[in-house]
Design a protein that fits this description.
It is a single chain. By secondary structure, this protein is an alpha/beta fold. The protein is built from twelve helices and nine strands. Strands 1, 2, 3, 4, 5, 6, 7, 8 and 9 form a nine-stranded mixed sheet that branches.
Length: about 300
């Protein structure tokens, strides 16, 4: 085991006492034992700190850090990942349950890839199986095309094992965007990604989830919110175009420029046509028939004036 690479695991906690013990127990039970767990607590007011202290006293591989002020979900993970020194880095949520072979199988898989991930089984707040997997909702992707992650994401943070070079390219995390989608995009810019088809995490669904994969929290959006989403999409495309200098740059930059034209008008057919033309990559993750993908591309073409 001493010859195997050390894995730094980043865990962020915030008022997670209800499920934290199960998660910590599942990390400790890993068959792959050469790991360190770096925990950053974001000013919890429940029993989370005392639970962490209890586990850290029993296992020297667990290292605790406490924020002086609340950073929020993305920034707290940025801090936790920044503390990881190993060449292999895994991400851990506070409320899931890991399969005991998770790390072992991912280390075996990563090879020359920059990032690997896996499927996950959905469980409810009580830990009961919901008889669904993430792969039931999304197509998983393996390869080196970063444009796959422009509009959609199939790489959940809790499933990631990545090389440190991905983190170096990704920090600091851009504000208002999902850090796991950003990591997946950068990993594909740097090299290739792969996935394990097995469900190696029980992914708990409850009211406190930051990612609503089952769309249980869908609410009506105001006109201002819809307009803001268009503007943010353009900001995201600009960010990705600047980040990726490979063969995908030309397409990403064209999408960015057409999105600006869309935002200034009522309808930009060129933007929708560009999405549709490159649907095999841009909409690869969307687990829908081509008819649905066509209407997805069509919806992308409506501009600010149409939203208003």
């Amino acid at each position: 085991m001493e010859n195997l690479p050390l894995i730094s695991i980043a865990l962020c906690t915030y008022n997670g006492s209800a499920f934290l013990r199960e998660q910590l127990d599942s990390v400790i039970a890993q068959r792959y034992t050469r790991w360190e767990l770096l925990v950053v607590d974001d000013c919890s007011t429940d029993a989370t700190p005392s639970i962490l202290e209890e586990y850290a006293e029993k296992d020297a591989r667990i290292r605790l850090h406490y924020n002086e002020q609340n950073l929020g979900y993305n920034k707290n993970f940025e801090k936790a990942l920044g503390l990881c020194q190993s060449e292999l880095i895994a991400i851990c949520d506070q409320d899931d349950i890991w399969h005991q072979e998770k790390l072992e199988k991912q280390v075996r898989l990563i090879g020359d890839h920059t990032l690997v991930y896996h499927d996950s089984e959905l469980i409810d707040a009580g830990g009961r199986s919901m008889d669904r997997r993430i792969s039931d909702k999304l197509n998983f992707y393996r390869g080196n095309a970063p444009e796959v992650f422009l509009f959609l994401n199939c790489v959940s943070g809790h499933s990631i094992l990545m090389k440190k070079q991905v983190l170096r390219k990704s920090l600091p995390f851009p504000e208002r965007f999902h850090y796991d989608q950003w990591l997946a995009f950068n990993a594909a810019c740097l090299g290739s990604i792969d996935f394990a088809e097995e469900a190696l995490v029980q992914y708990r669904q409850h009211s406190g989830n930051n990612t609503d994969i089952l769309a249980l929290k869908t609410v009506a959006r105001s006109t201002d919110q819809k307009v803001l989403e268009l503007e943010r999409e353009s900001q995201w495309l600009r960010l990705c175009a600047r980040q990726c200098t490979g063969k995908a740059h030309e397409l990403i930059n064209a999408l960015y420029n057409q999105s600006l034209r869309r935002n200034d008008g009522f309808f930009n057919a060129k933007f929708g046509m560009l999405v549709w033309k490159h649907r095999d990559t841009l909409l690869r993750i969307l687990k829908k028939p081509d008819t649905s993908k066509f209407f997805y591309a069509l919806r992308k073409a409506w501009g600010v004036k149409a939203k208003k």
